[in-house]
Amino acid sequence: MHDRTQSPPASNERYDKQVLFRGIGPEGQRALGDATVAIMGLGALGTVIADTLCRAGVGTLRLIDRDFVELSNLQRQTLFTEADAQERLPKVVAAARRLAEINSTITIEPLIRDLHAGNALEILQGADLVLDGTDNLETRLLVNDACLELGIPWVYGAALGAQGNAMTIIPGETPCLRCLIADVPPPGVMPTCDSEGVLAPLTGIIGSWEAAEALRLLTGQPPRQGVLLADVWHGDMRIVELDRRADCPACGGTYDYLTGERTTFTTSMCGRNAVQISPAEERQISLDVLETRLARAGDVANNGFLLTFAVDETELIVFPTGRAIVKGTTDEAVARSLYARYVGT
Amino acid sequence: MRVKARLFATLRDHLPEDASDNMVEVELSEEATVGDLLDELAVPADEVRVTMVNGRARPRDWELEPDDEVGIFPPVGGG
Lengths: 345, 79
What we know:
By secondary structure, chain A is an alpha/beta fold. Chain A has two domains: 4-240, Rossmann fold, CATH 3.40.50.720; 265-342, 2-Layer Sandwich (TATA-Binding Protein). Chain A has helices at 16-20, 25-34, 44-56, 82-87, 91-102, 120-124, 137-150, 177-180, 193-196, 200-218, 287-295, 332-342, and strands at 36-40, 60-65, 107-112, 129-132, 154-160, 163-169, 227-231, 236-240, 266-268, 274-277, 299-302, 307-311, 314-318, 324-327. In chain A, the strands form two sheets. An eight-stranded mixed sheet of chain A has the order 3-2-1-4-5-6-7-8, with helices on both faces. In chain A, strands 9-10-14-13-12-11 form a six-stranded antiparallel sheet, covered by helices on one side. In chain A, helix 3 (44-56) packs across helix 10 (200-218). Chain A starts with 15 loop residues before the first helix and ends with a helix. Chain B is globular, with a radius of gyration of 12 Å. Chain A binds chain B through residues 41, 43-46, 132-137, 140, 157-165, 180-181, 185-186, 189-193, 196, 198, 203, 227, 229, 231, 234, 236, 238, 240-243, 270-271, and chain B through 8-10, 21-22, 46-47, 49-50, 52, 55-57, 71, 73-79.
């Protein structure tokens, strides 16, 4: 946690160019300094958003991510370095360090957490705005439910290949994400980062679009209407108008993703040969104790944030909340079995 | 009637080879719907999440008019 020691003045040299911009001004800059923004996911979109809002002087940034830095992230995830990947630092830890170097006057709340139905309200509560940097539709629909329930505006943003979307959701006012996408498509249908890849200029554009919308909303501007559809490869950008869907369950107060009706225990991870295991209830486990136990069975490394354990062709990465990422398989049953064998249920 | 269809992102794979850029003109019967157009283009329904007519998101059972321009998008889930 990096606490600011003093509130930034409404206008100072750091924010000169932004305060000069008529849409913001000294009053807008003060509003940014008073705001708390939650950034869900610190991948390509999340790092672009966090970098921009940190430099813009948003008072408190709450960073939420479940993952750690890998070499394949560096092509597009702008806050990370080779050293972060070598150390396997949790993304929010690496991001918080870098952001504190960029702007020491703001507060950064790094949360190494996996958002699920059981903790979504607690994690997002108190934010003035939620920005989307997640990598899968299920989590987005959960964020949608949670934000509608809490009455927090949020900005959906997604990027795959060269194609991205963005849309602003004001609870009770605009269409919500389920007005646009009714449900998670069946398994195997959604293109993934594995099949399509993702271009850094695209995540830059979509992340910046979300950050710009954050600056607008936090300084009292009305939300942008419609859905942005961007294709940076073919050079096509357009806004599609969208109406609220009369039969949208979420707009009608039925939160299927928040009640856990539609959320899963294990999830395959986008762009990775890996499965994540989330215990139904989080519990604190001692990585030191687990390290001692697993040292007898194979190679263990413990950096205090997470424990890595190699077994055959797979690797278990265990977090102190009991959550684990099983690398080297996309088979959820194999992952669950390894988890049960080495971490225990 | 004739309508114009634009296929975006990964759905471009379903364009006929003679399509110009991402657009194709399709001949449909009167009172055809967005869903009928998807059938005509042989785009699997599961791959489509958003359809728009003349710049506005519209459902599958929306009835088309001659010269409508229909945009067809896959869901985007990455990040």
